[in-house]
Amino acid sequence: MSTPARPQSLADLEALVAALKARGIVTEEELAARQAQTDRAGPEVGARMVARAWTDPAYRALLLQDGAAAAEAMGVSMAGAPPLGVLEDTAGRHHVIVCTLCSCYPRAVLGYPPHWYKSFAYRARVVREPRAVLAEWGTTLPDSVEVRVVDSTADYRWMVLPLRPAGTEGWSEDQLMALVTRDVLVGVALPVPPRAAAAE
Amino acid sequence: MTDTPVPRFAPGTRVTVRDDWPERRGPCHIRTPHYLRGRPGTVQRVLGAFANPEDLAFGRPAPKRVLYHVLFEQPPLFGEGRSGDDVLVEVFEHWLDPASERQAA
Hints:
The complex is a heterodimer. Chain A contains twelve helices and four strands. By secondary structure, chain A is mainly α. A two-stranded parallel sheet of chain A has the order 1-4. In chain A, strands 2-3 form a two-stranded parallel sheet. Chain A starts with 6 loop residues before the first helix and ends with a helix. In chain B, strands 4-3-2-1-5 form a five-stranded antiparallel sheet. Chain B is globular. Chains A and B meet through strand 3 of A and strand 2 and strand 4 of B.
C-alpha cells in the first residue's frame, strides 16, 4: 500500500537531518533512541496494559484516568507523544475508534496503524454504520449493547479497554494478553472467550 | 506559558457545532469534521487546552483553546442507525455555541 521512498525523498531527508544536526536541534543519539522506541511500540504494549487493568484494580483506575501515565508505568516513554485516553467498555456499551479526518492512532502503545484504519472506506463507514462494519469482520454485538464511535479528531489518542471475557478467572497477565489483539484495542473485534478459542 | 483558558462549557451542557465552512473561504486546517457542522451535541468532558491546530498548521502563533469531548446521538446525525448509539468527538471551544442560542435563532 505504501509508496516506496524515492531517491529524491531520501536525499531530502538526509539534507533535513544534516541541517537539524548542524543547528543542534537533534542529535544522532536522540534519533536512534526515537527509532528504537518506535520499533518497540506495537499492539502487545496496549495488550499488556489491558491485561494488567483486568487483574489490578489500581492500575485499571490509573489507565482510565490517565492513559499516558499508565503507559509510562509500563516503561513506555510518552515524552513528545499526545495524551492517551482509554475508554472502558461495559456490559451495555462498546467503543470503536476511528479518525475520520486522517489516521490519528495511539502509536506509542499500538505501533503503526493497519492499512484499513487509514482507508477511506473504514473512516467514512464506521462513523455512520458501525454495526455493519463490525458485522463484516464477524463482530456482532447484542442488541442490548450500544455502540459509541470515537472520532479521534484532535490532540488525544484513544484506546479501548474491552470487557474481560468470562471464563478467564485466575488467568495470568500473559494468558490474558494473548486475547487482546490490535483489532480488540481499536474496538473492531472483541476478545475471543476461552471456550470459543478452544473450539478453533 | 500559563495562559490556559477557562472552559466556557461544563460537562452536560447542550451545545451546537458552528455551521461554518472555512474550507470554502481559502486554505485552512480544521479538526471539526464536516458531518458535525450545525449539529447539536452534549459536552461530556473537558479534555484540556491545546494549541489551536488552525494556526499551528500554518506556523502562526497558536493560542491554546479548550478542547471538549462532545457526544452526538447517532440516528439524527446520519438519519440512520440504532437509537442509543452515539459518536464521541474532540471539538474545540471556538467551534461550539450554547444550544439555546441556535434554537432561538
